[in-house]
Amino acid sequence: REIVFYSEGSNDWVHFEPVIKHLNQTYQCIICYLSSSPDDPGLHTNSPNIFQFLIGKGTIRTFLFRKIQAGVFVMTMPDLGTYYLKRSVHPVHYVYLFHNMVSTHMTFKPGAFDHFDTIFCVGPHHIDEIRKTEYLNGLPKKQLFKHGYGRLDSILKELKNHHHPPSNKGKPKILIAPSWGKHGLLETKGEELVEILLNAGFNVVVRPHPETTKHSPKVINSIQKRFSNHPNFVFEGTITSLKSLLQSDLMISDWSGVAMEYAFGLEKPVLFIDVPRKVNNPNYTKIDIVPIEEFIRHEIGYILP
């Protein structure tokens, strides 16, 4: 168990796959892949160097986290050591791999990365934010690597290798892909927005964040029940597919990191509905760095108050 990857579910595989493939093909590393979801594609890869285990989300996972012996443990899940999933009692080097491109100090909870040894940073904004946080809180310096963002690389590769024309002629296809939370776009204005767009003759794809589906099922069920029979409406229940990003003409979002993937990877416009920002750290202004998801909105799209 020199290198262990832990996946919360199927959505993590899009972030792990490029890293695991590189380690496997370039260095022939033996990988131990742990997942809490039976539908995780990472559990079904066909490689002799990858050993997969389904560990669920209960007592077995909690016990395994505490007792595991490994050289390196890689995760996309923040807040290690903050709640019930703790560092191992054995010497293990913990690596955090980002599952989005947003800031570390506003979107994530305080202390979300404090118990990791190494962070694979998406860009210079992560390095600046983490170093400033360490300085202000008297934390030891972590190893920070200029890793980039594998999901963005996958989008660029898909765009280069395949031609994806819009699937419908006539009106543009609008992709609604927001973040999640009580102030999120779908939670507060979802049905109203879909209705307006469909009545205007647009083709509409709703691509909710998995956490919206998990925490606000009534919102999702209401949208599906009301619009599922409309010929110009599509509900996309997974964020692993790139189809809706590639075939749409414009994205409507709020504070979601997928807006940056859409703009940087596909060079398509984003319309931001200015709902209240998603703040999981009320003290984020002490870092005195403007979050990327705030200033970038003016550069990659338009903001609708």
TrEMBL record:
Coiled-coil region: none
InterPro entries listed in its UniProt record: Glycerophosphate_synth, TagF_C
MF term (GO), any: CDP-glycerol glycerophosphotransferase activity
A GO CC annotation given for this chain: membrane
Name used for this protein in its record: CDP-glycerol--glycerophosphate glycerophosphotransferase
Organism annotation: marine metagenome
